[in-house]
Design a protein that fits this description.
The complex is a heterodimer of chains A (about 110) and B (about 120). By secondary structure, chain A is mainly beta. Chain A has strands spanning about 5, 10-15, 20-25, 30-40, 45-50, 55-60, 60-65, 70-75, 85-95, 100, 105-110. Chain B is about 0% helix and about 45% strand.
Chain lengths: ~110, ~120
Amino acid sequence: QKEVEQNSGPLSVPEGAIASLNCTYSDRGSQSFFWYRQYSGKSPELIMFIYSNGDKEDGRFTAQLNKASQYVSLLIRDSQPSDSATYLCAVKVAGRRALTFGSGTRLQVQP
Amino acid sequence: GAGVSQSPSNKVTEKGKDVELRCDPISGHTALYWYRQSLGQGLEFLIYFQGNSAPDKSGLPSDRFSAERTGGSVSTLTIQRTQQEDSAVYLCASSPMGLASAYEQYFGPGTRLTVT
């Protein structure tokens, strides 16, 4: 079992819809959770992070964390074609210094 | 402010040659990480530096890989006797690691290494 799992996609949504990206993790000692966006040929860009159960909103983005179920999700409201990218979920596991990354979900927003 | 910078942006080298990749972290960030990303793959952790502590080298794939960080700032990743499987994008990230930090990392633009 991978430590951080994401569906590779592609996830295709129409412009203006809500895109829902999911991530599960295996280590219950995980402390912080991150979402990165990576455009093709570019480096990952931090979108937001969350470390408390519940929702955290930033503009069109909402991160949701459920530690009991060991999943974290990212909702993108009013999706735009410019949101088309690969979204990487990353987890900070207790006792480990580096983040552990999932393989990413490719999102395609159709105009 | 200035982000993480890396050089060169692209490097083509012949198999067996040594290469050096450079990373300049965000000013004030005490933690520095090296990752690599092969085409279509996730990020693979290589090495971590935090202040004056001994680096965490647990991700280095072989003894051909080494890294140093001078003066707590700039870091150099060296790959000796390069092999074709070393071809990847090498990403550097830095993190503030303060009391209020959630260990978020900020990435540089990467160095695309091609070994022919």
